[in-house]
Amino acid sequence: MTTDAEVFDSRVGPVVTVAPRSAVKTFFTGLFAMLFGGLMLFLGIFVIQDQVRILLNKDGKIEDFILAVGIIFAIAGWILATTLVRSLRASADKRVYFRAGPGGVSVSYPGWGRLSRLFLSYKIRSYDFAWQDVERWHTYAIQKGFYTYGSSVIFVGKPGWTVSVPTRFFSGTRESIAQSADRARQRADLVTRSA
Hints:
- The protein is an alpha+beta fold.
- The chain contains five helices and eight strands; from the N terminus they run E-E-H-H-H-E-E-E-E-E-E-H-H.
- It has helices at residues 23-57, 64-81, 83-91, 174-185, 188-194, and strands at 7-10, 13-19, 97-100, 104-113, 122-130, 134-144, 147-157, 162-166.
- A hairpin with a 4-residue loop joins strand 7 and strand 8 (162-166).
């Protein structure tokens, strides 16, 4: 039985946390992206620096294609490397939650990095939707060998909207989060509380 302290009010009625925020999972996701992005950033800067050296020393003609690849690598590397900063912030952000109840789902999680802040911050994405507006929902993941990435719970609405909630910010697997949301949907004690 859940205590009143665990019940939250939302636009869809009373809800309970079905997947708590996971600081460790969020941090390690950011760490992996930062390592990969840091390598790309390093390679991109190395290529750009080499092309600039050729230009300044007049050793020869710079290769436009090579310079373009270096710039693309540097930009993509920066975006990926700053994921660690955003992940550290998200791991302690109290605005991150995944809640559900008999009336619907209330979820809030970090979106993509903001260009205006050089990808060092993010905007919170928040959704509240009633179960009656949800046509179907399922889990999704991309797996390569033993590593799973892109794991999410996807809600498809009757008017045609889709909300994909990444599970990297929350404790538990995508299946356990979906099962917890389904159990919260069927909680009669929350229905009597809202009446």
